[in-house]
Request: fold
Amino acid sequence: MIEIANVTKTFTGRGAPFTALDDVSVTIRENEFFTLLGPSGCGKTTLLRVIAGFIDPTRGTVKLDGQDLVSLPPYKRPVNTVFQSYALFPHMTVAQNIGFGLEMQDKPSDEVKHTVDEMLALVRMTEMADRKTSEISGGQQQRVALARALAPRPKVLLLDEPLSALDFKLRKDMQLELKRLQSETGITFVFVTHDQEEALTMSDRIAVMNAGMIRQIGGPRDIYDHPAERFVADFIGDTNFLQVELLQTEGDSAHIRLPSGAEAQVRAPHDGMAPGPVTLAIRPEHASLAGGDGAALPGTLANIVYFGTDTHFHVDLDGGARFVLRQQNQPGQRQGWSVGDAVTVTLAPGVGQVLRD
Amino acid sequence: MAKQGFDIRRQPGFATIAMACFVVLYLPIILLVVYSFNAGTSIAIWEGFSWRWYVSAWQNEQVQAATIRSLVIAFWATLIATSCAVLAALATTRQGRFRGYTLVFAMINQPLMVPEIVTAVALLIFFAMIKVATGYTGLFYLIIAHAAFCIPFAYMPIRARLQGMDLSLEQAAMDLYGTPWRVFRRITLPQLWPGILAGAMLAFVISLDDVVITEFVKSAGQDTLPTYMLGQLRRVVTPEVNAISTALLAISVVMVMGFFFLSRNKK
Amino acid sequence: MSDAATQRATRSRWLLLAPALAVLIFAASGPLLIVLFYSFLTPGDYGGVVWEFSTDAWFNVVLEEDFFTEEVGFADAHLSIFWRSIKLSLMTALLTFIFGFPTAYFIATRPKEKRDIWMLLIIIPFWTNLLIRTFAIMELIRAEGTVNTLLLWTGIIDEPIQMLFTEFAILLGMAYVYLPLMVLPIYASLERFDFTLVEAGYDLYASRWRVLKRVIFPLAKPGVIAGSILVFVPSLGAYVTPRVLGGGKQLMLGNLIELQFGAGRNWPLGAALSLTLLAIVMVALILYVRAAGNEEVRHG
Reply:
């Protein structure tokens, strides 16, 4: 279990000091696939490097199973990293790369060999054991990097955007592969990415970061369905933002009035908010043009964009806002709308989240 | 940037050794320069500041003659070597590899690979034959010998410059009805100029500093400044040699700095 | 390109090369062939040669005939000079490596914009007169030089230490003058070094020393090999440094060769010795090209 408490990192170069991490506290659980998600420059990689030991925090503590990590140099931390560029040693073979960590821990050579064989099998690279790392493909290099970091059986595996160099299809395969490895080895994974889809599909829990701070921590569903603030809602998935009026809150439920005058029941942050004008976030797939129960927003259909699996409808609401909604395409069925039609956007009951800005 | 934690680049003791290296590299030279201003005759005991050794070197007729000879040789050798190098660089960079490329490249770089003493011996033998046959014993031998070993030094920066040049400029000039000679003069040469200057500076320094080949090739009474100094080292050394050295050093340092900044500008 | 155009291009290329090749053939490559020719002639009484075929010169490179008994044995004087040359050159390469590697590493790990200035500090001594730098070392270590004066003055020693005209002096001088030749290629290989590999090493439990030994050093090896060759080759053929610092007492190959054209008056032997030196240098260069080639193949 990793406990990160009040970690601040300020870089003082020649220019103005830059705060990469601003009072970050987070606890990563045993045997968890934990993802640090955020745009570039949000501090996620800095946090990873603080755990790995390549950056000392300006303030704060990092503990692993109760043991202080900050005072340990990187080579004494039971933590291994899969580097973004893989950082495979070009002068060693695949097997030598995988065995390097064990060798540095002065493990007996038969144990090294045994573990290397095991790791090669785990990442399905047994045939490639004696190849040079320059002689294997990008996907294979990725697997060797994984095996090399897993071989010493670290308590925590740190992954720094390890899939970013792979093409789309390979990346999909590796996502599943990573998930498999995590459950087979039972090692805690801390995964850094800027790709929200990757984060949603693989993680047990996600910490969304921005400007050196953690904005929200939660399971993928939680984060997607109930973003705590505008940044999170905007960064993860597509979202419509509507200016609405908050009438009253009760627990995490809120009663609001839409610009059209209709009233609706939506979700609100647990700690309550004062009534008044607020922002409402609604996912494009949580509304429809087909009518039915729920609050209605009249408007004009401005654009229809076909995406294969689904179709996006751009609606100019009466009052000026633009609303995008998404409908799945059914085989054989043609949607009957055309641009310029007067339409009504109907929100599914209970969806939508009131946000703090 | 200030230290941000565990510094992965640091290796204990390396900075200390590096600093020691810089001190060791410069200390002897600095001492040599300092004692060229010594008022006394010693090269180790400081007796006050004086220009006397510069004055005495300046008034020494042998030094005067050797200085002029050094400069004359360096001038002609640089001129010949740089001209040859420009043409050779044009021939070897433009159309990729060709038949005989390796041989040409090996020949140009031969002075860098063959030990100087071997070339010196070879020239001694060869020129002795010519001297006997023709009776001519002038400076030409030294000039042509210097030109030969200066060619690779002049060639390198010129070739580097040519390789970094944008071919499409010349193609554009040709497209605009430039004849090959005019394209060279109006487009290629102006861009090549820093490389040529850098090459010439290196060649000049190399010629001015040469000892071994000059020592073997020179006829009687053809001492250059370095061979004159080599001769002087056999006797009791006075700071006069330091003064001459300092003057030579100053020329070299100016030239090398010039070369450094000329070849850096292209980036 | 049409045949005619190709032919024209070829002709203009060789025309452009002609002046350089002419100078080089006249004053560099050509004379080497004459040296080969001379090594098979008979020495003249007052220098020069007699036009008479003889293999004595090559015979005398390493062998000698006893004047009285006519027994053939190894020429101990020559062999000891060969041995000293090779020994001192290897030691020079080692010494420059010990000091040059950390220096090159230090420069390569400076901020990018400052590296050029550090390198300039290495390059300046390299391009300054070798004789003057040797002379500077001589002033430092001679009996009445700076080091001895300082030691006498502090009372550490009672009389000057004889450093000049020893093998130590030659080694010191050669290491001093050729150090930049070691730093330059090592720096070149470290400058482009990917330091995430070092990070990976630390991440995988390697200590600083082990990262140096197992990650940094193997990857800088091409530069180290190049530097060693660059130092070894001119050391082996050194003439000025052993002459000034060895003072005619500690001869190296270069001085032995010169001797044959001066007091020795044996030009063919001098020619044969020169070619022997050239052969050793060529072997070293070929070994280097092989090693460098292998490295390239291995690292793709």
User: Anything to note?
Assistant: The beta strands of chain C are 42-43, 49-50, 63-65, 72-74. Chain C has one domain: 75-299.
